[in-house]
Amino acid sequence: MGKGGSSKDTSNIAHHKGTPSPVRNRRGQKGTPGPGGNRGDRLIEERIHDPYKTKKKLPEPTICPECQALFQQGRWTWAEIPPNANQELCPACQRIRDRVPAGFLTLSGAFFQEHREEIINLIRNKEESEKAQHPLKRIMDIEEQEGETVITFTEVHLPRGIGEALNRAYEGEIDYQYADQTSILRVRWHR
Ligand SMILES: [Zn+2]
After folding, report:
1. Could you say which DSSP state residue 99 is in?
2. pLDDT tens digits, one per residue of 142-171
3. Which residue in 76, 174, 61, 53 sits closest to 134, CA to CA?
4. Tens-place pLDDT, residues 47-78
5. How many angstroms separate the alpha carbon of residue 161 from the centre of ligand 1?
6. How far is the CA of 57 from the centre of ligand 1 (A)?
7. What is the pTM of this model?
8. Sign of the C-alpha dihedral, residues 65, 68, 69, 72?
9. 100 Cα: distance to centroid of ligand 1 (angstroms)
10. 29 CA distance to ligand 1 centroid (A)?
């Protein structure tokens, strides 16, 4: 267990929906001035405010006891586990344990509802292929909220990539929001 992303829909992180978060950069518009500039791309690249980023220098090799990801040469990978590895939860498993998603993808609309299974499968497949390369890229949960489907993620690149993939495959409307002072990304796709 613990690979992230159960196969069934769950609703056990509903307490996140009320999280207040000052938001800017809606559709790339200029937001309120803030430290570090307000370019969302740069925020994603630097992830300077991410409390879940591997901050201290972990001894290498370190193994995550939950998902068995291996930290070596400065990054988390899937690899054969060497004997006597240090143990520490990887950032993805920390987020899953704390139920603190980094990314949100909200799906809505009549077209989505008609093609829900196909679209969710596309998203799951995308997660599987990304996670195979990058252990920290995972879906946390898929839940229904007031007629919308909300998917939560352990990091921000995956929901962004999935949003772009949905837009390529189906068009529709897409919107990205970056929360201020954090590295949280909220993507909405509607069709
Ligand atoms: Zn882990």
Report:
1. T
2. 999 998 999 999 999 999 999 999 999 999
3. 76
4. 455 677 766 678 999 999 999 999 999 999 99
5. 21
6. 17
7. 0.72
8. positive
9. 14
10. 36
